[in-house]
Amino acid sequence: MTLHDIYPAFALEISGGSLSLRGLRSEDLPAVGELAVGGIHGPDFLLFLFPSSEAAPDKLSLNTARFY
After folding, report:
1. Contact predicate 68/24, CB 8 Å
2. What angle in degrees, to the nearest 10, is found between the helix axes of 29-38 and 57-67?
3. For the chain, which residues score pLDDT lower than 70?
4. 3-state SS assignment for residue 56
5. Long-range contact list for 35-44, CB < 8 A, 24+ apart?
6. Which of 4, 34, 54, 61 has its CA 20 to 30 A from that of 27?
């Protein structure tokens, strides 16, 4: 039994040009954590009511994986 059998939505992939969207998998989390540590938005922009992007790099990567 595969992930796609259990959760069919994980088999869905939407592509257009050079962009492809699909559900995140466990193997994607290290790369997502690196992107978060590298910065996704400017320091003056808050996505949430608390400054979640101001955490130490090791915490930011872990929190991104935990709450993504």
Report:
1. yes
2. 130
3. 68
4. coil
5. 36/60, 36/61, 36/64, 37/61
6. 54
